[in-house]
Amino acid sequence: MVGKEKLEPKFKKMLEDIENSLSEDTVLQEDLKDLLLDIQWDICGIKGYQKFNNGEYSFKFGGELDNPDITMEIDDDDTALKLLNGEIDSFEYRFYKRKAKIYYIEKWEKEKVGEEILKKKYFKLILTMRYTKGIFIHPYTITRLPIFRDIIDKWYDPKTADASYIPINDSLGTYEDKVLPLKVLEHFINKAEHLLITHGCGCRIYNQCQDHDHSIGCLYIGADTVDVKEVFPKKIPGSSHFGTKEEALERVKEAYDNGLITVIGRLKWDAEAMGVSDRGHFMTVCFCCPCCCIAGKRMYGTIELQNLMQRIEGVSVSVDEDLCIGCEDCMEVCVFEGMEMIDGKAKVNQEKCLGCGRCERVCQNKAISITIDDPKRLDEFIRRIEAKVDVS
Q1: Dihedral over alpha carbons 301, 85, 160, 280 (to 10 degrees)
Q2: Rounded to 5 degrees, what are φ and ψ at 265?
Q3: Same structural domain, 204 and 345
Q4: CB under 8 A, 24+ apart: contacts of 204-211
Q5: CATH at residue 357
Q6: How far is Cα of residue 349 from the mean position of the Cα atoms in its chain?
Q7: What is the DSSP secondary-structure string of 229-297?
Q8: Shared domain check, 379 and 364
Q9: d(Cα 299, Cα 306) in Å, to the nearest integer?
Q10: pLDDT reported for residue 57
Q11: CB atoms within 10 A of CB 241
Q12: Closest by alpha carbon to 242, among 227, 262, 259?
């Protein structure tokens, strides 16, 4: 048992570190500039609070707030010490009524299921995040705090991570007799020897998506896919198989026909979530919907999480105000807050827009255009991704 004498000074240091770092930590400044949040902590009976007010910060060790936005409760002193020492390296959440629970992967163990040996994840609770006022706050919001941002940095290493949305929009035209975005996907699919096709989207299944096909799962490409030991949904027989190039391209077409947008790249967490060590030979191709996709939830988190995905260079999105009727359909499908309404007209927030093309596809008045200044930009994008991941 750890005891309060070890936890108290570390908790107090966590509270103080933000105040001490705020003047020099530019990432922290960016993360807190628009954060309005009161947090009450209860770490194994040790109280304290933090108040974030659009760039301003205050705290009190031992203090209690009358009506905080959220209350963070940790009941296990060993887990509390690991968190305060920076020893936790994963972050997962589950929603419940008026609360969320944050977990980390405590261990992996091999387990025989029929004739297969699978790697099973065992989760341990870090904390319970209670919505004291009954107002929902996404769990990724707390990754703006350095103690949680450090966890994110461990499994989304900016040195190796790179990803972009591939807009599947006919209006982008063709290049070398191929629809532009499909050229990118065909390049990697044709280059790869190993194509793991999954038959269930974890995001849509977990969120009980009502608008898109649950069975259109991710495509994983590269030699490291042969080491995959856990596929979501792991309890469904035949939830994945190694397919042909033709099957992989058919999956891309299915996703397009279902209104899903493709995101492609290398993210360490994707490999490790499947029980694979990230060695640079594991590419993820996700087919995302606006309602459930976890990639869209990153907008709530630290700026480092938000910046993981970049718009393809040369892709631009614009609105013809004369054709826009202010119906807000484009805002409904944008999960990145990339579209705003100003004086009854849609306007692209160029800092947040990732060029995914959803807005152009839903605009009934054809007021939105997505273009690329030079088709050869896709060759540049391919080289950019290949600098981070080798699928051959």
Answers
A1: -120
A2: 160, -165
A3: no
A4: 204/289, 204/292, 205/232, 205/233, 206/292, 207/291, 207/292, 209/289, 209/291, 209/292, 210/291, 211/259, 211/289, 211/291
A5: 3.30.70.20
A6: 20
A7: ---SSTTSTT-EEE--HHHHHHHHHHHHHTT-EEEEEE-HHHHHHTT----S--EEEEEE-TTT-HHHH
A8: no
A9: 5
A10: 98
A11: 12
A12: 227
Same domain, yes or no, for 233 and 353? no
Distance of CA 28 to the CA centre of its chain: 19
Which parts of the chain sit beneath pLDDT 70? 1, 112-119, 157-158, 170, 173-181, 229-238
State the pLDDT at residue 233: 45
Asked whether residue 45 falls in the same domain as residue 67, the answer is yes
Tens digits of per-residue pLDDT, 300-341?
888 888 888 888 999 999 999 999 999 999 999 888 889 999
The residues with which 342 forms a beta bridge, in sequence order, are 345
Q: Model pTM greater than 0.85?
A: no
Structural domain count of the chain: 3
User: Apex CA 105: angle with CA 35 and CA 165, to 5°?
Assistant: 55
Q: Minimal CA–CA distance to 212: which of 252, 259, 169, 250? A: 259
β-strand partners of 288: 261
Q: Provide the CB-side half-sphere exposure for 304 (13 A, CA).
A: 23
Helix (H, G, I), strand (E, B) or coil at 100: strand
What pLDDT, in 10s, does the model give residues 153-172?
887 766 777 888 888 776 77
